[in-house]
Write a structure and sequence with these properties.
There is one protein chain. This protein is mainly alpha-helical. The protein has ten helices and no strands. Helices cover 74% and strands 0% of the residues. Helix 3 runs antiparallel to helix 4, helix 5 packs across helix 7 and helix 8 packs across helix 10. The protein starts with a helix and ends with a helix.
Length: 164
């Protein structure tokens, strides 16, 4: 046994131990139901116990998908400078319901996306090699779309950047 780890993975985790670990985890950082469910499945928790633990975690507000979505969206917009499309896709992958997604995404000021994208484009423009303005513009548009921005925001950000 190396560092006691192989013993730990072989040992079944009791429902109570899973509850304690997960409540501690969720008290320290936001997690959605999907992440917690996957973790319990990896631990080999039975489906009955999984349902009971998840119900208790949500009832006691350790897990709240809307609160998770707000924190996730805030981080992705502020720190990673993702566009709405990329955030929607990531929330979909985490099984966050459409109504929560739309509610939380609609709280983000559209100008914030434009400002973030302008900052990204300014940096990208310096490192992008292009034969002419058309080619440069195409590369910047592809870059912005890859970051999850839709064309209206891209056009607005590029126009504001050119006006400066």
């Amino acid at each position: 046994m190396q560092n006691g780890q192989s013993h730990q993975t072989m040992k079944e985790i009791s429902e109570q131990e899973a509850w304690l670990r997960l409540s501690t985890l969720c008290a320290n950082s936001e997690h959605c139901q999907q992440e917690i469910t996957e973790k319990m499945q990896r631990w080999g928790i039975s489906n009955d116990a999984l349902v009971r633990i998840m119900e208790r975690l949500t009832k006691e507000r350790y897990v709240d998908d809307e609160r998770f979505a707000r924190a996730f969206v805030g981080d992705k917009v502020r720190f990673d400078k993702w566009g709405r499309r990329k955030i929607e896709q990531a929330l979909w992958m985490k099984h966050i319901s459409d109504d929560i997604q739309q509610r939380v995404l609609n709280e983000v000021d559209a100008q914030l996306y434009v400002d973030n994208l302008r900052t990204l484009l300014k940096t990208k423009r310096k490192s992008t090699k292009a034969q002419n303005d058309y080619e440069l513009r195409q590369k910047l548009i592809r870059f912005a779309m890859g970051r999850g921005y839709d064309f209206d925001i891209i056009r607005q950000a590029m126009e504001e950047e050119e006006d400066e």
